[in-house]
Amino acid sequence: MKNRTRADEVNDLFERALPVMHSTLETDYRMTRREARDAEHDLFVWFHRFARRNGLTATPVRSLRLPLLVAACQYGRSFQLWKHGGEDLDESLGRVLAREPQDLASELVDRMDRES
Amino acid sequence: MAGRLLRFPTKPISSDEGAAAARAALEVPIESREIRAFALQLEEPEVLLGICGILRSELETAPDKVLREAEFFYRFLEQPKRSIGILDEREFFLGETALVAGTACRLLYRREDARRWFDRSEAWFRHTVNSVADWARLSYQRLALRLEEREFEEVRELVPLLIESFEKLDMREEALKCRFLEGIVLMELDQPTRALETFRRIRSGARAMGNDQLLATALTNLAQLHAGLGEAEEALDASRHALLVWRRLNNRVGVAKVHWGMGDLLRVKGQPSSAVEAYREAQKEFAEIGMRGDVAALQLVVADLLLDLGQDDAARREIVAALPAIDEMQMVPEGVAALALLRESVRGRRIDRVALRELHGYFDRSES
Prior knowledge:
The complex is a heterodimer of chains A (116) and B (368).
Chain A (H helix, E strand, L loop, with lengths): L5 H23 L4 H18 L14 H20 L6 H8 L2 H15 L1
Helix pairs in contact in A: 1-2, 1-3, 2-3, 3-5
Chain B lengths: L14 H13 L17 H14 L4 H16 L10 H19 L3 H15 L5 H18 L3 H17 L3 H17 L3 H18 L2 H17 L3 H17 L3 H17 L3 H17 L3 H17 L3 H17 L4 H15 L5 H9 L7
Helix pairs in contact in B: 1-2, 2-3, 2-4, 3-4, 4-5, 4-6, 5-6, 6-7, 6-8, 7-8, 8-9, 8-10, 9-10, 10-11, 10-12, 11-12, 12-13, 13-14, 14-15, 14-17, 16-17
């Protein structure tokens, strides 16, 4: 059997988290399908570099799930704040943007754990 | 013609290309680097990631050089504000280069500078996605600095909390590194049996993880402890093993520390000439990598030994040679007082042994 590299493990984790990230970006952060796809591409590139940062190279990849989801939420939030500038937002998007990405990401981790 | 330069997105590069570009960038002299920033791809996160990795790996062997490089990259990233990578990458690289610069300052005994760099690092890490882990790494460096300032009780209280943080984050290597601080505190508080246990546990943990750097550091500390307890065979065995691993890692600071430990052992065993030889080996390694503080500390140790041998003039020459480098260091008040007493005694006829020993006691060679 081929030896699995850390990059393979990073790919696997990303793929497992992808449905949850996609749904969060589209449903919670109201990104269009196209915007969400672009965001996912950026997050994929970011996450591969993130897993090689100093201090994390020996950390098991499975422990990087929360930071990945925090990054996804932070991405969605920053994107919508930039897109809408000072405009009035509808109530539900306003509520999501008011939340800390860390809090929402922790809920997503719990949801993934319940579903697995 | 007036106008502005438009920058088009460049094709992303692979991690291998990034690592090669990082090595190439570091080969360019600092003074001509910024002007070639675009060609050297200095704004490319893969390159910056490679640079951070290289600088961290060279911290112990070339802290002087690493400090200059880390400072260059920090300033480059800071001003003008550049758009680097995705999400938090600019903030991470700023925090990381500041952390590396601070660590280098700590190793060079430039403690005020180290503190300033750590503050900068903290400010940037506040904005990273994984700020808890980044802050934990920063806390480790701050604790190491407090240990060097002999705040043993504070370190003893805070180390377990930091270990807990690293364990929660699944950063087992970093957690194991913290155990060194614990072991060194026990050594300093004169609890050698407990310190031995701690370093043995670190040795096993490092072997299990396959981490040679931590293994060699544990062996070096074990050698020193055994030597202090007069267990010559165990000390020599640990030293020989440590030397092998440090040489394999090409870590000159590690090699120097083992020679230093061997010098101590030979001295205790009543072989002063061989001890001086071992200390000189250590000095040579430290001098070649620009660690002037450690060279000076060893000069004081050798002076102490020469006094034992009744070679007062030679001892005086060692001390006089060490004083300028010690002057440049930012020592704790007790160290400053001992330095003043020693300086005064060197001017007179009789060297103050107590001041001499107190002063070289302020240099710690056991840090990880």
